[in-house]
Amino acid sequence: MIAPAAYPIPRNEADRLRALRSYKILDTKPEERFDELTQLAAIICGVPISLITLIDADRQWFKSKVGLDLQETPRAQAFCTHAIMQPEMFEVRDATEDDRFSKNPLVTGNPHIRFYAGAPLATPDGHLLGTMCVIDRQPRTLTPEQKTALEILGRQVVANMELRSNLRELKDALAARDAAAGPSGDAAAGLDSIIDTLETALAELRDVRQGKVSAR
Predict the structure, then answer these.
(1) Strands, DSSP E only, in 58-156?
(2) Residues 160, 209 contacting (CB under 8 angstroms)
């Protein structure tokens, strides 16, 4: 096992974790909108494994996965722990030749990682929550076009997280409105805010479908 102190921690770790948990996405069920992006990353990059990872306090959790049975790994074993230390693409051509990873259980044992490339998932506020990553069991590199595609897919992951969060807020607001409705059925004040939230969510959905990057 890798000692817990062996992996880097961002300076803004407390704020980063707060931002991650605000999305309320950890330990949720698989969703088609994310699974399609993971599948596309594997196809574009020609790899057997593709993941959407989120780095929690002491674990790496997979929101979506292709070619891997695990649901999470210890943070100390996560290549993505290193990827979130920089806003640019993080790439490891051959993990067996990299001192940071050569003794990693995910390298010496299943799934026998050799190649890794991860595009950090950056929130509109700049917090790096995890990665859109691809993995191979043999050394390699990505082409410039594949790197660009992986970065675009990473931005689409965040766009979908933003959309998911807005829709959740809308659902909560509607539930609060219904709970506050009087006997006559009149809703409490705040309908304008609910409508604004709905309009924002719909606009982001259009951006996602058109391949644009959405931001609040």
Answers:
(1) 59-66, 72-74, 90-92, 115-122, 128-136
(2) no
